[in-house]
Specification:
alpha+beta; 5 strands
């Protein structure tokens, strides 16, 4: 089984359903977590994520409960727009 996550990566929960024992996962759909550890197990890959465990123990969650957070920087987007504008031959006005 392959793992497309890495320690320190931000992930968003897409499945907060009960675990295989019928207990709450302490996850919340839409919440962002940070991967603290990757736990390989037979048939699945588990992720230990920050903020989703009780005070007395950590718990690995199936990796299919998460998706990577895609962070898009504003500056990168603005540079793309500036390049598009520059192709028109008109100068780009920047607020000072």
């Amino acid at each position: 089984m392959t793992c497309n996550f890495r320690v320190g990566q931000k992930v968003v929960c897409v499945d907060d359903g009960i675990d295989y024992l019928g207990k709450s996962t302490n996850l919340s759909v839409g919440s962002v977590y940070t991967v603290e550890a990757i736990v390989p197990a037979p048939m699945v890959v588990g992720l230990v994520v920050s903020g989703a465990y009780s005070w007395h123990h950590t718990k690995a969650y199936r990796s299919d409960r998460f998706r990577p957070v895609v962070e898009r920087g504003t500056e990168k987007g603005m540079s793309i727009l500036r390049n598009l504008l520059n192709k028109t031959g008109k100068p780009v006005e920047v607020d000072a």
